[in-house]
Amino acid sequence: GATRMEALKLLAKVNNDDCRDVLKAAISDPYEYIRRQTAYIITDMGDDSLIPAMVTLAITDRHSKRVFGKARDGLTFMDCDKGIAEIARQLAGDTYLVDAASLADALTKQLEYTQFKLKRDTKTMMDTSASLRERLMEVSTLRTYNYHAVLPLVAELILNKSENKQIRLAALDAFSWYTHSYQRPLILATCDKILADAGSDEDLKEQALRTRNRMHARL
Hints:
Blueprint: H1 2-14, H2 17-26, H3 32-45, H4 51-60, H5 65-75, H6 80-91, H7 100-126, H8 132-144, H9 151-159, H10 165-175, H11 184-196, H12 202-217
Helix pairs in contact: 1-2, 1-3, 3-5, 4-5, 4-6, 6-7, 7-8, 8-10, 9-10, 9-11, 10-12, 11-12
């Protein structure tokens, strides 16, 4: 188990298709710690291709509260529409689980609430008429809660030259917390645009370089 765990950790640093194949298999590993860490890694990546594996983990590993809790919560950081569809697909007509309907309902409601919350919070984040304090709070929240799907909106904030400088700096900083995200190419491209723009503010360039370096340092 310890050897498999170390191999999984190293693969997560490589973060390629081989890693995704191993993650899909690791949800069935007999070692609880590996299954739990698999949920963490999938959450950090947020990759749509891993949604079926995460749903399966949430359904099959409910006897382990730590694994189930992380798999359930991790789904909220992935594409919620696809998560809801996958939950319905895997639990539809299930005659093995006596509580299949209630489980599907609970998981679906959690994702639906996340959709509502993200729509509300991103609206505030993008609203130039909202207070700077409110907007900065929503941007800063993305450092702790890695909602991968909203990163294109964050990139818009960063590249918008008419946007408040504090917002742009905070957004660039938030990007640096997504080192394993499937949105990594978008993050690097955004940083490169700031660095390549001769008219970019020096503070923005410094933060873009810092974020870019962190994305590479975590590999």
